[in-house]
């Protein structure tokens, strides 16, 4: 825990001069207060002395980056409010719990084109199969367009389309 001066203030946080060191550490705006901080300049100004706690260090591109926090230190006394880093661990867990599953969606076509290994029918997987051995087999009903295309291709004289038969209803 240090009581240094604020060197610069940016949109995303404040850089703090570490006493006895040439390095500066960053207090990100999420670590300035337990409340939401939109503008770090409303919390601190250049030259202010604030209590900070070193919460992390990272080597990136052969440079040491120091992460600092103001919200885990009492700004009046400098007492550590999170001596066991429990609040920091909880914050990290909150960040990790959100996952984007949009790229893992299964399209309906992918399921419809599958063939069950248990009964041999199309449209479901073996683990979802409800057929009993020796029982009735169920499969998907082909769409009318596929039947008409097949009939048109094989029939020669019979060329039907949906435009010719508007009264025909789709199931």
TrEMBL record:
Keyword Signal in annotation: no
Gene this chain is encoded by: Zcchc17
InterPro entries according to UniProt: NA-bd_OB-fold, S1_domain, ZCCHC17_S1, Znf_CCHC
Principal location: nucleus
Stored PANTHER family: NUCLEOLAR PROTEIN OF 40 KDA, ZINC FINGER CCHC DOMAIN-CONTAINING PROTEIN 17
Name this protein carries in UniProt: Zinc finger CCHC domain-containing protein 17
An example Gene Ontology molecular-function term: RNA binding
Region (Disordered): 146-171
Compartmental location: Nucleus, Nucleolus
Keywords (A to Z) from UniProt: Acetylation, Metal-binding, Nucleus, Phosphoprotein, Ribonucleoprotein, Zinc, Zinc-finger
Residue ranges of every copy of the S1 motif domain listed in the record: 1-71
GO biological process entries: RNA stabilization
Taxonomic placement: Eukaryota, Metazoa, Chordata, Craniata, Vertebrata
GO cellular component: nucleolus; ribonucleoprotein complex
Pfam families for this protein: S1
């Amino acid at each position: 825990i240090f009581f240094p001066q604020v060197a610069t203030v940016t949109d995303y946080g404040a850089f703090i001069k570490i006493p006895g060191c040439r390095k500066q550490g960053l207090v990100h705006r999420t670590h300035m207060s337990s409340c939401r901080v939109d503008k770090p300049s409303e919390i601190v100004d250049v030259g202010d002395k604030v209590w900070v706690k070193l919460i992390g260090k990272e080597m990136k591109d052969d440079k040491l980056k120091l992460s600092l926090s103001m919200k885990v230190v009492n700004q009046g006394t400098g007492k550590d409010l999170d001596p066991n880093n429990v609040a920091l661990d909880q914050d990290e867990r909150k960040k990790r719990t959100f996952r984007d599953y949009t790229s893992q969606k299964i399209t309906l076509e992918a399921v419809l084109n599958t063939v069950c290994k248990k009964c041999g029918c199309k449209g479901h997987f073996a683990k979802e199969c409800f057929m009993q051995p020796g029982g009735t087999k169920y499969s998907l009903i082909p769409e009318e367009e596929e039947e008409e295309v097949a009939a048109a291709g094989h029939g020669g004289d019979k060329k039907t389309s949906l435009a010719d038969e508007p009264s025909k209803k789709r199931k």
